[in-house]
Amino acid sequence: MKSSFSLKNLDLIVAALALAVLVAVTFTNVFMRYLFAKPLIWAEEVQLLCFLWMTFMGAGAAFRYGSHVAIEVVVDNLPHSLKRVIEIIDYILVVLILGYVCYLGMSMMPLMLKIGKHSNILHIPFWLINVVMPIGCAVMILCTTSAHYQKFFRKKDAQISLSEDK
């Protein structure tokens, strides 16, 4: 059961870990720069990597928990059937856009592997930095699909089982 929980929240764990490393490296770099006048020359590369992974992995978790910013005042005041149509259109548009960005990220990977470019200081391969884009978009697609499935089908299942119990 616990392994299922960990796998379900792997994106959240990766985002939290990236945030922790980002804060620690930033704090340490500020400390080193202003107290010892010796900044960490590698800090910017680690910060960039952590920021990208935190953003893309955290966005997947935000889709799962419905935490993205939304202005729903218009949609909430519509009739239920029209609201459902707009939510379906919204889901389709989100999946299409994320799918396209995922496709672009995947098509970039062979080029990154072929040129073999690395970051200047830590020699991190650029494919490792950029692979988060297709992974993050795939996670976002899975999470938004799961959230919409829960919204549209689980409510019906719960209502049917409740009515059968009576």
Task: Using brief descriptors, characterize the structure shown.
single chain; 166 residues; mainly alpha; 82% helix; 0% strand; disordered C terminus
Characterize the structure shown.
82% of the residues lie in helices and 0% in strands. It is mostly helical. The chain has one domain (2-165). Helix 2 packs antiparallel against helix 3 (43-65), helix 3 (43-65) runs parallel beside helix 7 and helix 5 runs antiparallel to helix 7 (132-165). The longest helix has 36 residues, at 80-115. 17% of the residues are buried.
Q: Any chance you could write out the topology, listing elements then pairs?
A:
Elements: H1 2-8, H2 10-36, H3 43-65, H4 73-76, H5 80-115, H6 126-130, H7 132-165
Write a concise synopsis of the structure shown.
With 166 residues, the protein is mainly alpha-helical.
> What are the segments in which pLDDT stays under 50 over at least 5 consecutive residues?
158-166
Structural class, from secondary structure content?
mainly alpha
Q: Average pLDDT value?
A: 84
For the record, the count of structural domains works out to 1
- How many E-type strands? 0
Q: Specify the oligomeric state.
A: single chain
Question: What percent of the residues sit in helical stretches (DSSP H or I)?
Answer: over 70%
Percent of residues in β-strands:
under 5%
Amino- and carboxy-terminal Cα gap: 31 Å
